[in-house]
Write a structure and sequence with these properties.
By secondary structure, the chain is an alpha+beta fold. It folds into two domains: 28 residues; 39 residues, no CATH class. The protein contains two helices and two strands, in the order αβαβ. The protein has a two-stranded parallel sheet with strand order 1-2. The longest helix is centred in the first third of the chain and has 21 residues.
Length: 71
């Protein structure tokens, strides 16, 4: 029987995977991988430096987003 900590981690993992699938169409792999997320708030900005830093940190996949700064 799994302890509650392991069950909680599995539940969190499932929730995160579900959110990523909905937002970015990411398909979860059987083996763990480090995902990165780079975001800028305006189209005048670039995610290039963030992506480079995330890849250098070991991220296997980097998701990017450019949001409009308008509310």
């Amino acid at each position: 029987m799994q302890n509650s900590s392991a069950q909680k981690q599995r539940s969190i993992y499932s929730t995160v995977v579900s959110m990523l699938n909905k937002r970015f169409g990411v398909i979860a792999k059987a083996s763990p991988m480090i995902l990165g997320y780079a975001r800028v708030s305006t189209r005048d900005q670039t995610v290039a430096l963030q992506v480079d830093a995330l890849r250098a940190a070991g991220c296997a996949k980097v998701l990017t987003e450019v949001a409009s700064g308008a509310i």
